[in-house]
Design a protein that fits this description.
alpha/beta, Helix Hairpins, NAD(P)-bd_dom_sf, 62% helix, RCK_N, 16 helices, elongated, 8 strands, two-stranded antiparallel sheet, Trk_Ktr_HKT_K-transport
């Protein structure tokens, strides 16, 4: 297509600007408009504007006003997911955009016209930029279990309260049952709905116990890691906006005694680089030295994508563990078949293995040290040897 051909000719920086930032800006703008129009529709009398004028009941207009504000807050969450490059955020935004357009249409308010127009405009743009949001949403087993428990308790309370509606004062339909479950499990308890039989009292007690437990577990498992990640960034780790600026940089995968001279050399030469390591103490030390660091497993694909391996110029891997280095090399090679990868082997028997993993150059520290020791013992100048090993005489 013509649009895709023009897009491919743009510089990389413009591609990132056109795709990621504009998509996020559109999602946030739709979210803001959805909240504002929803609140205006709730606070004002029923309107009568648009092609559906006269055919939408007042109760439906008020309902879509309330749900429109709620959808706007959900759009904010999906925009934040887009900012992290998550595929789940892309899908959520793609689903919510038609919803906001329909809600704006049903509100029958002239203030909803910008919401409808922008929602419809954002859909083809989001489809066009789908390949830019490829990060998988990684949830642990604990997080999945906590989310499932929270949903399960709400379902248990809703259907149970509806089944026992004759034993409650104020429950007439499923919405009333869900409302009762939500305010009971969250310990709000307005008191407008109450049990009138021993069975209903026992059921309410079970909802209180299970609801409080599920909310507590869910907050700890789902919100806790996000808070911890935010604190980590505050303490000096790279933010997503900083990662977006990486271009033509060197990636150093892993950190150890062998990596320290590499980092020092790159830092002294004022070369743009980023270190990816799962060692928290090493990450803190590097951050204190104003060195870019991403705390993550360098053998996983997700952190390498976050560190913009597609824009990197080279990859250096040199820790004290050849097995971990091989995994990091293999992952980097799969993500970027054309990138130059250089690594060091602590055991010279692993040189071939690292080459088969995808390294372009493998330096055996044992052989290098042996050459230098012999030349030094014979009283020769070791500089030509170093130059030859580094390929400077070629």
């Amino acid at each position: 297509m013509v649009g895709e051909a023009i897009f491919e000719r743009l510089p990389d920086n413009w591609k990132r600007l056109v795709t990621v930032r504009v998509a996020i800006a559109l999602a946030l703008l739709v979210a803001l408009l959805s909240v504002v129009t929803g609140v205006l529709n709730i606070s004002q009398e029923a309107a009568d504007f648009g092609p559906l004028a006269g055919s939408v009941p007042d109760s439906v207009q008020q309902a879509v006003g309330f749900t429109g504000a709620l959808t706007g807050f959900l759009m904010v969450a999906s925009a934040l997911a887009l900012r992290r490059g998550l595929r789940a955020g892309w899908w959520a935004t793609l689903i919510l955009l038609p919803v906001t357009a329909i809600q704006g249409l049903l509100q029958l308010n002239r203030y909803s016209l910008p919401l409808i127009a922008l929602s419809l405009l954002s859909i083809p743009f989001l489809l066009f930029t789908r390949n830019r949001f490829d990060q998988e949403l990684s949830l642990s087993t604990t997080q999945l279990a906590a989310g499932g428990a929270l949903v399960g308790v709400q379902a248990y309370g809703t259907f149970g309260a509806y089944a026992l509606r004759e034993d409650f004062d104020g429950i007439e339909n499923v919405l009333d049952a869900f409302y009762f479950t939500l305010i009971t499990s969250s310990t709000v308890g307005y008191g407008d709905i109450g049990p009138t039989s021993p069975e209903a009292i026992l059921f309410t007690m079970s909802v209180v116990v299970l609801g409080v437990a599920s909310f507590g577990i869910a907050i700890g498992a789902l919100v806790g890691p996000a808070i911890q990640a935010r604190i980590t960034k505050t303490l000096g780790k790279m933010t997503d906006s900083e990662l977006e600026l990486l271009d033509n940089h060197v990636m150093v995968l892993g950190y150890g005694d062998l990596t320290e001279p590499i980092v020092t050399e790159l830092h002294t030469a004022d070369t743009q680089f980023v270190v990816v390591t799962d060692d928290d103490s090493a990450a803190d030390e590097l951050s204190d030295r104003d060195i870019r660091v991403l705390t993550a497993d360098p053998s996983n694909e997700a952190p390498l994508k976050r560190a913009k391996i597609e824009n990197a110029r080279a990859v250096l891997v040199a820790t004290d563990n050849d097995a971990e280095d091989a995994l990091a090399v293999l992952t980097a090679r799969q993500l970027r078949p054309d990138i130059r990868i250089v690594t060091a082997a602590t055991d010279r028997q692993n040189t071939r293995k690292l080459e088969r993993a995808g390294a372009d150059d493998v330096i055996s520290l044992a052989e290098l040290g042996g050459h230098l020791l012999v030349r030094s013992a014979l009283g020769s100048d070791e500089s030509p040897v170093v130059s030859q090993l580094l390929g400077e005489d070629e």
